[in-house]
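Example 9 (inverse folding). The structure is encoded as follows.
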């Protein structure tokens, strides 16, 4: 029997990891950079995806707003594992094998991850 690492980590940990990566000093509004942010429940489909409301500009956003993870079809878990394997210096081919992905998909993901998880020049 082969142990699949995708079964060993849970979504709650993945979202927690994203929050730590993007908001080292506490949650900030991605639109106006204010810290006056309150929690606003969770995503309807992703139970652990925290939603927020900015009291400064009234924008609503969530853990993945303005990150490379939103708008991509891979689950967050796969991205976080990809990041983990990159930290272990695995090759794209090895990562692809571990995650059951095409090597070209992994190549695109590692390029994005190296540039940082928060998208630049959004405004
Ligand atoms: Zn704001």
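The amino acid assigned to each position is listed next.
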């Amino acid at each position: 029997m082969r142990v699949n690492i995708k079964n060993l980590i849970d979504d709650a940990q993945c979202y927690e990891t994203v929050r730590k990566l993007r908001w080292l000093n506490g949650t900030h509004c991605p639109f106006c950079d204010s810290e006056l942010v309150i929690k606003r429940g969770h995503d309807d489909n992703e139970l652990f995806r925290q939603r927020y409301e900015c009291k400064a500009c009234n924008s609503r956003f969530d853990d993945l707003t303005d990150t490379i993870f939103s708008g991509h079809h891979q689950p967050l878990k796969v991205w976080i594992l990809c990041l983990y394997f990159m930290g272990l210096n695995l090759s794209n081919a090895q990562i692809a094998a571990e995650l059951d992905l095409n090597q070209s998909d992994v190549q695109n993901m590692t390029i994005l991850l190296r540039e940082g998880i928060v998208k630049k020049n959004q405004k």
